[in-house]
């Protein structure tokens, strides 16, 4: 009989090696945060080849790569990355179904699980089981470092109390944030969770009572807190808020950010992250595009239809390759998120990286309406701009008629701020604004406050749903 021994977390990593390879804030800004383009490319290439070697050991990658004629050794540098087929979350779902419980893309043998120091986290699934991902100590800490780089660049300091309104349950976002702020900056996290865990009224009371100076909050929830403050006569300007770390979403003309910043009297910073790879890009205080954590992730932007690489500055699907994680490796994951990458240049903050545009929508939520591509998230700007709206909306697509007269009906349901708003005038104005923004005429229905949450999942999920697809 073998004698089982506990595994101590502090012994699971070589901490000095970790911080040298993936510098946390305080080191990042003078090292990998401002490497020359050639040095960074060489570092990315070396890490990429290590991850490719990890991936060959797993059936998910081995089978897919062999199917396109690749053999171990064919990929010699990051310049060969386009030879590797991309995958989507649908492929991961299939991989999990074919090799339960964790899937053919991650190591899950009893021997591995007893030896490794791993946790189970998931994507925010809305139907069926959420997508499960294993995180070993290395992956968790690098994700913490990614978040910490973002928070530091946005002004978070050890004296800050940061209120985190993501729930520390299965979803990764809350944990990345907690670890980033706590392990790698030494700020003081306040893990209130989402509105389902701590009501919005209480969130504001705690912020006032305990002196919250920073927030990590989705823009949708920030808007919700703003409304609750207004409805309950709570003065947001009395809080000590210094900065808000957020995921703003589509906001080409900056209206959404401006309204939130005015309401909270503090800067709101945008970030981009994914469940498997963490917070991979972040704004600094310049608010001029998001710095990519290039030593942790390699990003490509490809054309939605052809899958071909797009030039810098053009918007397409974001393909992400993790340069740091082995269990599971993530190589050429088509996120189906629409963004653009901008050239490297020295930023006013001192960092020198490629930058990412703001998030522009989901390519898999695209609806083709009379020949025009319509993205539900593209409706957000018009909704954010209008003071009669409270920010909540959902697009409903359905089929009308039968046979030859079958057509798609696309309706945007928008909540009015209060029942005092004249629904008929508001509807007509909203239709005109959406026609301008989307380039195609859509129908609008005005809904009363609070009636759409059941469809959008606001408060319950870490993600907000903007498309209800009722087509058969
Ligand atoms: Zn910068």
What do you see in this structure?
The protein has 472 residues and is α/β, with parallel strands linked by helices. The protein folds into two domains: 1-363, 3-Layer(aba) Sandwich (Rossmann fold); 366-469, ANL, C-terminal domain (GMP Synthetase, Chain A, domain 3), CATH 3.30.300.30. Helix content is 30%, strand content 23%. The chain contains 13 helices and 20 strands. The mean pLDDT is 92. Bound molecules: zinc ion (ZN). Zinc ion (ZN) binds next to loops. Residues 371-471 form the AMP-dependent ligase C-terminal domain. It comes from Microbaculum marinisediminis.
Number of strands: 20
- Main-sheet strand order equals 4-3-5-6-7-8-9-14-13
Class of secondary structure makeup: alpha/beta
Oligomer: single chain
Helicity range: 25-40%
CATH superfamily of the largest domain: ANL, N-terminal domain
Task: Describe the largest sheet.
Answer: 9 strands, mixed
Total helices: the number is: 13
Cα distance spanning the termini: 58 Å
Query: What's the rounded overall pLDDT mean?
Result: 92
Please name the CATH topology of the largest domain: Rossmann fold
CATH class of the largest domain: Alpha Beta
Q: What is the CATH architecture assignment of the largest domain?
A: 3-Layer(aba) Sandwich
Cα-atom radius of gyration: 23 Å
- Cofactors, ions and other ligands in the entry: zinc ion
Total separate domains: 2
Give unreliable regions as ranges. none
Domain AMP-dependent ligase C-terminal: 371-471
InterPro entries: AMP-bd_C_sf (IPR045851), AMP-dep_Lig_C (IPR028154), ANL_N_sf (IPR042099)
Protein name: AMP-dependent ligase C-terminal domain-containing protein
């Amino acid at each position: 009989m073998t004698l089982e021994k506990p595994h101590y977390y502090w012994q699971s990593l070589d901490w000095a090696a970790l911080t040298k390879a993936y510098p946390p804030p305080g080191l990042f800004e003078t090292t990998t945060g401002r490497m020359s383009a050639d040095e960074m490319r060489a570092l990315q290439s070396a890490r990429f080849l290590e991850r490719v070697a990890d991936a060959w050991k797993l059936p998910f990658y081995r089978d897919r790569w062999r199917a396109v004629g690749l053999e171990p050794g064919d990929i010699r540098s990051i310049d060969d990355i386009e030879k590797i087929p991309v995958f989507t979350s649908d492929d991961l779902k299939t991989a999990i179904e074919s090799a339960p419980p964790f899937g053919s893309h991650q190591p899950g043998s009893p021997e591995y699980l007893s030896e490794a120091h791993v946790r189970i986290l998931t994507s925010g699934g809305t139907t069926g089981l959420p997508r499960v991902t294993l995180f070993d100590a290395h992956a968790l800490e690098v994700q913490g470092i990614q978040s910490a780089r973002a928070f530091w660049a946005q002004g978070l300091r050890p004296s800050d109390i940061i209120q985190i309104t993501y729930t520390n349950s299965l979803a990764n976002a809350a944990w990345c944030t907690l670890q980033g702020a706590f392990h790698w900056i030494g700020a003081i996290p306040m893990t209130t969770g989402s509105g389902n865990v701590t009501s919005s009224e209480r969130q504001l009371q705690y912020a006032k009572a305990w002196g919250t100076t920073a927030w990590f909050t989705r823009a949708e929830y920030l808007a919700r807190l703003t409304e609750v403050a207004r409805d309950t006569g709570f003065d947001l300007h009395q809080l000590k808020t210094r900065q808000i770390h957020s995921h703003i979403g589509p906001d080409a003309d900056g209206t959404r950010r401006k309204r939130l910043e005015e309401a909270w009297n503090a800067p709101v910073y945008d970030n981009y992250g994914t469940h498997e790879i963490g917070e991979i890009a972040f704004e600094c205080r310049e608010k001029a595009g998001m710095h990519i954590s290039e030593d942790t992730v390699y990003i490509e932007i490809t054309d939605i239809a052809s899958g071909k690489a797009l030039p810098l500055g053009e918007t397409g699907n974001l393909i992400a390759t993790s340069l740091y994680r082995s269990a599971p490796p993530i190589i050429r994951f088509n996120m189906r998120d629409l963004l653009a990458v901008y050239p490297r240049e020295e930023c006013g903050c001192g960092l020198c990286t490629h930058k990412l545009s703001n998030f522009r929508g989901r390519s898999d939520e695209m609806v083709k309406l009379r020949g025009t591509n319509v993205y539900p998230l593209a409706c957000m700007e018009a909704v954010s701009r209008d003071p009669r709206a409270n920010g909540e909306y959902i697009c409903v697509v359905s089929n009308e008629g039968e046979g030859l007269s079958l057509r798609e009906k696309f309706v945007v349901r928008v909540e009015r701020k209060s029942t005092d708003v004249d629904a008929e005038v508001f509807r007509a104005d909203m239709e005109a604004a959406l026609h301008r923004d989307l380039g195609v005429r859509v129908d609008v229905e005005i809904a009363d406050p609070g009636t759409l949450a059941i469809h959008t999942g606001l408060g319950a999920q870490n993600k907000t749903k903007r498309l209800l697809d009722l087509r058969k």
